[in-house]
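protien #1 (seq + structre)
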Amino acid sequence: MKKVDLLNLKGEKVKELKLNENVFDITPNDKVLYDAIILSRASLRQGTHKTKNRSEVRGGGRKPWRQKGTGRARQGSIRAVQWVGGGRYGTPVPRDYSKKQNRKERRLALLSALTEKANEKELIVVDNLTLSTPKTKEMLALLKTLNIEDKKVLMIVKELEENTILASRNLQNVILITADEINVLDLVATNAVLITEEALNSIEEVLK
């Protein structure tokens, strides 16, 4: 059974925690994890791209010149695709990029990502993340104490606190979420997971 140290905000070891083997010690499924990442990234695409085709541009209602006798190439409309200001051909139209993945696969992907974090020693558990002030420098001091100031950090808490939100929102390398918002994309996109003991217990309770 895997174990992890529980630290306080000073970086001191408080005790040792046993990680749930059904959550942090499974055999990772790389294929399902990859599919979940593609699904997550695809769902972020708006799909609102649009250009006008020949039937949607303004003008070009009549033939610009007669078919024969002018010496020029025959043309049917000044809004054909070869004309400046004409319609576009084969260009994007609005579409939905979202993909589907069944519930068991989504759960397996999340468990695989959590197991990878535990295997790579990128899981840091603290007793709380309650800050005394809403200042960014206090959050930076905490990250430095835990030796993760130069890493991209995913912070997971049970409930959001105002000081934690304000102290972390200006840091580009910090993502703050609650335990019920945990997702594969944030896990694989970060180098360290800083999680409170309360949030860890909540995740294990749901996923065990």
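ok now protien #2
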Amino acid sequence: MKTDPVLYKGRPGDRRIDKEERCYALLDSLGIEYYRADHEHAGTIEDCHDVEKLLGAEICKNLLLTNRQMTEVYLLLMPGDKPFRTRLLSKQIGTARLSFASGEQMLEYLDITPGSVSVLGLMNDRERKVHLLIDRDLLKAEYFACHPCINTSTLRLRTEDVINKLIPAMGHEAVYVELPWEVNEA
């Protein structure tokens, strides 16, 4: 039986898994206000539409990518409903053909499992091996929605807090890219 998501302000009162708890601790330590929706497992953008309505924010697409040689790792944040083609991004960042990272690589670099990839996973990248890429269209929205390293909750944060407080606190710098809304397959 499916249960509807519920909106809360701030961290949960009950104990959660360690990586989720670390997300709340980081946000609280930075004084970042956030709203949280707890919900059933949501492994795809399509699974998140009810949560988006509740939060009043679109959940961004978070893709962990590697170059052909698997020597570079990239976390791409982009609008959830925007199409993605690896060749267009590869050309912009000047790297060999990109492919999607494996579940093992997600765990190794961000301590995240497939379906839970999030900018908050960068707090687990202490060696700064992951390059952060942000599609400029995300900056147009007042709010930014992402998972707290687990896909049974989703957070709504102010976009300016993500860009100006959260990302710098995790020791990462963003490279901004511009991906097209329409993709010609020719």
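The mean pLDDT is 90.
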